[in-house]
């Protein structure tokens, strides 16, 4: 059964008297463990789709099923709970809490995910060591974000998203602010998350080369999906 199903999703923003159609009739599904990239020019609706899939914005029409549950049928509290337990977010601007160390940022993500779980779990220390090693941040965990490079901050943000073992990882332009070396590290970690940790990854990117690490590439234009192609599904090269 697909883990993400979008059925005729539409979104219109109201801005004063203006109606801005951002998504029209978007339908697709994603299988568990699949890595899907979404590409398209600025304004094509990628971020809007990301926010709707993450339950952060409601669609105007159509429906989104996450693991068989329709977000629109949940109360705000239930939606928040489901988001915390099932989805890991990675943003272009990292969004780390500045007063906490890298480790503190990872721990707080774990605590927040526990709020979404009926049965609380311990921080998965072996997974943290594994992720830190793969991401090359083992020696940086005591540092605060302002003591880390942009690439290191984004690698911490990936560890923060994956430590909770989310079934779905949503990444919005995760390599947008990074140099090639850090971009490749981030892309390869997302690929590992799909291949080895069997997480479903949906990544928005402007960069057609970055999209090639995915199994499948959806192209958007003017709020619609205009193309679906196979990605190469291979590692990015440093
Ligand atoms: N809060 C909002 N209010 C009004 N219009 C909006 C809002 N957010 C987005 N839009 C409009 O919706 C359309 C789709 O925007 P969206 O941010 O989803 O595109 P995008 O493909 O992610 O663009 P980018 O690559 O530049 O981030 C655009 O026309 C945008 O101006």
From TrEMBL:
<dbReference type="GO" id="GO:0005524">
    <property type="term" value="F:ATP binding"/>
</dbReference>
<dbReference type="InterPro" id="IPR003593">
    <property type="entry name" value="AAA+_ATPase"/>
</dbReference>
<dbReference type="GO" id="GO:0022857">
    <property type="term" value="F:transmembrane transporter activity"/>
</dbReference>
<dbReference type="GO" id="GO:0098796">
    <property type="term" value="C:membrane protein complex"/>
</dbReference>
<keyword id="KW-0067">ATP-binding</keyword>
<dbReference type="GO" id="GO:0016887">
    <property type="term" value="F:ATP hydrolysis activity"/>
</dbReference>
<comment type="similarity">
    <text>Belongs to the ABC transporter superfamily. Macrolide exporter (TC 3.A.1.122) family.</text>
</comment>
<feature type="domain" description="ABC transporter">
    <location>
        <begin position="4"/>
        <end position="238"/>
    </location>
</feature>
<dbReference type="InterPro" id="IPR017911">
    <property type="entry name" value="MacB-like_ATP-bd"/>
</dbReference>
<keyword id="KW-0547">Nucleotide-binding</keyword>
<protein>
    <submittedName>
        <fullName>Putative ABC transport system ATP-binding protein</fullName>
    </submittedName>
</protein>
<dbReference type="InterPro" id="IPR003439">
    <property type="entry name" value="ABC_transporter-like_ATP-bd"/>
</dbReference>
<keyword id="KW-0813">Transport</keyword>
<dbReference type="InterPro" id="IPR015854">
    <property type="entry name" value="ABC_transpr_LolD-like"/>
</dbReference>
<dbReference type="InterPro" id="IPR027417">
    <property type="entry name" value="P-loop_NTPase"/>
</dbReference>
<dbReference type="InterPro" id="IPR017871">
    <property type="entry name" value="ABC_transporter-like_CS"/>
</dbReference>
<dbReference type="GO" id="GO:0005886">
    <property type="term" value="C:plasma membrane"/>
</dbReference>
<dbReference type="Pfam" id="PF00005">
    <property type="entry name" value="ABC_tran"/>
</dbReference>
């Amino acid at each position: 059964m697909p883990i993400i199903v979008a059925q005729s999703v539409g979104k219109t923003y109201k801005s004063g008297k203006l109606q801005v159609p951002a998504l029209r009739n978007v339908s697709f599904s994603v299988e568990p463990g699949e890595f899907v990239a979404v590409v398209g020019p600025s304004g094509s609706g990628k971020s809007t789709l990301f926010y709707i899939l993450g339950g952060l914005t409601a669609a105007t029409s159509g429906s989104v099923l996450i693991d068989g549950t329709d977000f629109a049928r949940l109360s705000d509290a239930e939606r928040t709970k489901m988001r915390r337990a099932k989805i890991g977010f990675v943003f272009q601007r990292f969004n780390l809490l500045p007063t906490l160390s890298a480790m503190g940022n990872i721990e707080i993500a774990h605590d927040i995910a526990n709020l979404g779980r009926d049965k609380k779990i311990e921080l998965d220390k072996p997974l943290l060591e594994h992720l830190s090693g793969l991401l090359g941040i083992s020696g940086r965990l005591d540092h605060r974000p302002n003591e880390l490079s942009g690439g290191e901050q984004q690698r911490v943000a990936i560890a923060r998203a994956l430590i909770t073992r989310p079934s779905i990882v949503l990444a919005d332009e995760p390599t947008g602010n990074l140099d090639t070396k850090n971009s490749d590290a981030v892309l390869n970690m997302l690929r590992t998350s799909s291949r080895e940790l069997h997480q479903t990854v949906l990544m928005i990117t402007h960069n057609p080369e970055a999209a090639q690490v995915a199994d499948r590439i959806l192209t958007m234009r003017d709020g619609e999906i205009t193309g679906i192609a196979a990605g190469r599904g291979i590692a990015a090269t440093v």
